[in-house]
């Protein structure tokens, strides 16, 4: 659906002389990203309002999105898979928030932050094998992801000391933990694909 709509919009823009035909692929990709983002945000807002977890959702993605931008992680092969995976991860987060006993949230927060800090420092950035980063991008993204996870970790721990057993703090902690798990998954996926490519060439 998203590729189809993107193609229709791009073709319409070309037909109406809004964009040049030479820029077809660029705008096609841009519209796919835009429509995918709109779909994701719309679905998340609907679920957040329906489950009355708007604050928790906001805190989760405040931690998740900036770190994801620089640390990278698992990348699905198409927009549908990306949407499904995001929804599964998000719903999993909501379930954890609901089932986790708040009396033990301090331990959950500490473990989540500690694991995330170690993984991001050692693995980030993890790019998609089909869209590799050059040396300068790797250095820049590694620095920014390490800086971000350090700021998040210190901030989350400090907030947790002030507001103990807070669902807000746990949401932030689970946001950075999601990125850490995505880095591991992305790294394993890239290793498997690299191995497959090597076997294919040999």
Layout of helices and strands, plus pairs?
Layout: H1 2-15, H2 24-50, H3 54-71, H4 79-99, H5 105-123, H6 135-162, H7 167-201
Q: Could you explain how this protein is built, in words?
A:
- The protein is mainly α.
- The chain has two domains: 1-50, no CATH class; 52-201, no CATH class.
- It has seven helices and no strands.
N-to-C series of helices and strands: HHHHHHH
Radius of gyration: 19 Å
Overall 3D form: globular
Contiguous low-pLDDT stretches (5 residues minimum) are: none
First-residue to last-residue Cα separation: 38 Å
- The tally of beta strands, per DSSP, is 0
| Percent in strands | under 5%
Properties at a glance:
single chain; 202 residues; mainly alpha; 2 domains; 7 helices
In short:
Helices cover 80% and strands 0% of the residues. It is mainly alpha-helical and 202 residues long.
